[in-house]
Amino acid sequence: MSRKIIQIKTTDIYSSLTLVGIVWFVFGLQSLGLFTHCYGVIPWRIEGIKGIFLSPLLHGNLNHIISNTLPLFILNTLLFVFYKRQAYTVLILGWLISGILLWLLPDFAYFKTGVYSCHIGASGLIYMLASYLFFSGIFLRDLILVIVSVVIAIIYGSLLYGIFPSLVDSGVSWQGHLIGVIVGLGLSYRLNKKAKRIKRL
Asked: How far is the C-alpha of 145 from the C-alpha of 164, rounded, in Å?
């Protein structure tokens, strides 16, 4: 039986509201004509490095940002509610490592079309958060956290289709989705293995 006490603080909600607010603020700047060129991740291109930091904040259109807003808010809130000590580490490292790996991954579309890919949107971050939350509950073997993992699997299980290039639209960054899942899994294993080791001391 888990002894974890769930304490939802206003700061947990504020962190998610702040993140979503920044995303929408940047989208507003895009709508005013800023960021008209590609500020996302462009694999293997020097000018694409800035996308490591900016890509999750940028969106192609209104439908794009709307579809990402609720999952980003919910998953980030769950991260801060259930993994307070790790939350900022997961968010920052997940953001940066996902961006770096996406930049290092070959641009498969370029080999076919001769046009460079520009990866933007928060969906890679969403996949990273979902992956981290799901696997963390399993690794920690905590009843409450396992239940959270099951809920994540039920609600966001369809996200799995987004990591396969043959199952998504050609304009969707399946690479970003796949890297997000891998990074979330890696962070979950690394951080929670360390947490379990500390508990044994």
From this structure: 28
> Of all helices (H) and strands (E), which one includes residue 124?
helix 123-140
Q: What is the pLDDT along the chain (201 residues), one digit of tens a residue?
A: 344 555 667 778 999 999 999 999 999 999 998 877 789 999 999 999 999 999 999 999 999 999 999 999 999 999 999 999 999 999 999 999 999 999 999 887 766 777 889 999 999 999 999 999 999 988 988 888 888 888 887 887 777 777 877 667 767 888 999 999 999 999 999 998 766 654 544
Measuring CA to CA, which residue among 181, 177, 173 is closest to residue 38? Answer: 173
Question: SS3 letters for the chain?
Answer: CCCCCCCCCHHHHHHHHHHHHHHHHHHHHHHCCCCCCCCCECCCCHHHCCHHHHHHHCCCCHHHHHHHHHHHHHHHHHHHHHCCCCHHHHHHHHHHHHHHHHHHCCCHHHHHHCCCCCECCCHHHHHHHHHHHHHHHHHHCCHHHHHHHHHHHHHHHHHHHHHCHHHCCCCCCHHHHHHHHHHHHHHHHHHHHHHHHHHCC
